[in-house]
## 1
Amino acid sequence: MRNPFRCFNSSSEVILVAVMMYVRYPLSLRQVEDILFERGIDISHETVRFWWNRFGPLFASEIRRRRVHQRSYSLWRWHVDEVFVRINGVQHYLWRAVDHEGEVIEVFASKRRNRKAARKFLRRAMKRYGSPKMIVTDRLASYGAALRTLKMKLRQRCGRWLNNRAENSHQPFRRREGAMARFRDIKTLQKFASSHAAVHNHFNLERHLVSRSTFKQNRSAALAEWRKLAA
């Protein structure tokens, strides 16, 4: 396999740190530039933009490939919901599916919120991970129509508070969206949301559920695995 860093003057470690800081944390491009400059790394914010566009999807794809082998994604219950995203004054929709533990399974950006878009999103998620035993949604009619065409209507569950898992999972993306001052086009939205979901899954250690010592071990393991992406 050809080295993806072969044509760059900066080391792979610097690129990894810059991409992680921008995708993982709610920082702007110039804030990442300033933080790296404080650590003796003099690069432009446009360089950070180029790096995440070039390597963000590459790192996300590798993370998803490794996590599929390391962790069996739950097919017990999925929580599906959509986020309203405005691009150049036009309303778009980001469909998101998470499992019962809050792990982001799939994201999909579309211009419509109809049956066709919902069906395409669900088929995309199930093609990668399989069919879940239960799908929790809100009362949007597009979900029921899409599941009916997929012959999975009986697996749908709707309720006032049943989908809080999906609602809470939107918060990291919303904070990140605010730092980016919105998106320019739907392709950028899809690319960044997909990369952000993979990186968030990788570093989401659920520190409120484990002891301090266990959290430190998991954090060290996650950082070590992230550094291996440069190999």
Note: Residues 77-184 form a domain with the Nucleotidyltransferase; domain 5 fold (CATH 3.30.420.10).
## 2
Amino acid sequence: MLMNMQNDYNRFRQIIKGKIKQNLRKYISNGEMIGRKGKDLISIPLPQIDLPRFRYGDNGQGGVGQGDGEPGDPLTQGEGEEGAGQAGNLPGQHIREVELTLEELAEILGEELELPNIEPRGKKQIVSEKDRYTGIRRVGPESLRHHKRTFKEALKRQLISGQFNIEKPKIIPIRDDYRYRSWKTISHPESNAVIIYMMDVSGSMWDEQKEIVRLETFWIDTWLHYQYKGIVTRYIIHDAQAQEVDRETFFTVRENGGTVISTAYELCSKIIDKDYSPEEWNIYAFHFSDGDNWSRDDNQYCVEILESQILPRVNMFGYGQVESTYGSGEFYDYLEDYFGEHDKVILSHIPDKDAIYDSIKDFLGKGK
């Protein structure tokens, strides 16, 4: 019975995943689901699907199956009372919210976009040590005494010596019977990663452009968290100056001022210098802008910083350019001229929310 229920549940989960895959492009471009994100779960609205669930009635509300009933009591209380109003002749569309773990969501993303698993750079292995209980020994601290094995040894000794009375069973361990858990230290290689997001918040980057960045970074985060067990995220905003901020500020700060992109790249390089040795970390840097920099001289300076300070130390550098009414978009062309064939540089043009799906595949499709 329980096995059949588990099989039914597993089949149901596969149906859900299939439904999400069919509409993944829509979900990616829709920010509504991000608002339903919990610590480890995310709720996704699925139309026209019935979820199997048990419902428990309120105690003391009357009705058959809820205590003592009287003749004429309804089977379920309030049936027919809900949804009162003018009658109609069209069927309703029933939307259910399905909870998925972020790991399940990442699996769906990877399967649908055909994303390869990331292979961490060889030198970025951190070894953590953990104690694991692996056996039993005769000596050890009292806190690790294995009581079941101790009494088992005592019983064996009493049976062999004829001291055990089956009529009055009593097991009394002596010192030689004591057994203790033993352990050894296990080394686990772990790959740690850091994501450094940079975003232009100058006057030409409005709420619509920042919403595109918010959606895209959510999906990038989801995939990279699935690939790495230990991951850190840092946020940089810039107009004519750059500063590090928290996530909430990153997406809510009001746009203002001019644009000097190099200030963000300088700060990114300083953060890597200070906190993330390339020998120990997989480093990802993403920059989002409308491509309107203040001068060609600064464009050239950005190229120099990337070439000498950032690219030698990162797994990949991604530049996503969102369209803006007032943005010139020249920076994308400048980077393409210099880094169009560079193995670590990935450029993506994001004109609107519908383009986020393809942009994610641009950034993550090479398994860097």
Note: Confidence is low (pLDDT under 50) at residues 48-57, 77-85, 122-126.
## 3
Amino acid sequence: MIESPPALAVFFIELRKSIRQLFISIGLLTLLIFFLSPQMLEVIQAHLAEKLYFFSVAGPFLAHVKLALFGALYALMPWIITVLLKAVGTPFKVAGSQVFFFSFFTCLLFYAGTLFCYFITLPFGINFLLGFGSEELKPVISIGRFVNFVTLFILAFGVIFELPILMVFTAKIGLVTRSFFSRHRRYALLLIAIVAALLTPTPDVVNMLLMGGPLYLLYEAGIIILLIMRIP
């Protein structure tokens, strides 16, 4: 009798089928977006900051490369998510319409999280931080640090908004049960508070609630979705 390969091996086999094309596409799109990155930076700067500075010769160039890479990842995220979900789902017999379902709602939640971060959380956080400036203490923001700060936070919010999908997927493949999530609400709330404290740009309660509040609602939404789908 031939034994089936372990789940991790199946995951990497499936991932290899698309990873090369994915990396090539990311590289080409990064190159294309690089020529549009000055306009992108201008829009982001107008929304979140006043003046940016650089302290090395290569600073602006590297900042535009990072912004272009972020733009490529952001645009190709539906493909990236589909590739990852196919690779993860194959060992657990999740395929076809189920992969489409998970991919669609994963993309939807990812973009919802990034937009929430860009339009609500980041403006509050940056205004709070810059509010400590004065006539004697002028803020001087490095273009490189600004791009790192903004892009990482936007991507982080996109990822953490996938909480309901993670809950549904883990319950569907049998790793946990719906009752597990229901019984451990208090621990989930504590973990969400810790994540919000670590990831929000400022330590004040308002910004923590702007992240922790939606996350807890997403947690409850995950439980409701499991109930509707009749996943035990």
Note: The chain has a mean pLDDT of 86.
## 4
Amino acid sequence: MSNSTKIGKVYLVGGGPGDPELLTMKAHRVLGIADAVVYDRLVSDSVLDLVPAGAARFFVGKQTNNHTMPQEEINALLVNLALSGHMVVRLKGGDPYVFGRGSEEAIELIKSEVPFEVIPGITAAAGAAASIGVPLTHRGMATGVRFVTGHCRADVPLDMDWKSLADPNTTLVVYMGLANMGQISANLMAAGLDGATPVMAVSKATMPDQQTCKATLATLVDTVNARKLKSPALIIIGQVAGLADIIGPEMIAKKGSDDGEIIRSIASA
């Protein structure tokens, strides 16, 4: 690490869903020249392998009821590293501004007059959906998509506009939703969303050990528990989840698949 007294710079970098080949070229370049990297639990080992051997590493990962470092201390760490002259990469899974607290860190950096730049990443919703063959929107099925968090502070129930979320024409993507999937599915059905609505749950999306689980809203809890899906996981709820049976990786790789038949099936969906 440099001993320069010149103020450094902080890069809020999206590490994407896990596969290092899904990093942006800019993220890859900045990682290669960092001298301090502050990284989250959801950053994959294969992305961390791109960090220079001589760079200082600070793990600040969070999970339910176990925060390695409170957010306020992470903010202070970024400021102090930059004020000490370091080129800092704040490395997050997915995108810094999608459930990544990147904006909280940006506000603190501005208050402390620390130069920073945001480098977006492929958010987990896009990465997971692509890896299992589920489009987040599809003509005639889903005219919109909503990202929500399925996690809240300990012992605090999820407080959402369930009636608004229970829209059959919208794809609902739930981040960090495994722990509360029973509450989520029950509230959506109580708000009017059909229990037969297709659902796909994905664990460790885009990685070699990726797991998927196909269910309906009504069977989500039992199916995920039977599959022993592990966190981090993402839940995609909506009619588009059913397209995994048509354009998912298993169907595309299926020997003897008739491409014309696949196209006709999608068109008539």
Note: Residues 61 and 67 are 7 Å apart (CA to CA).
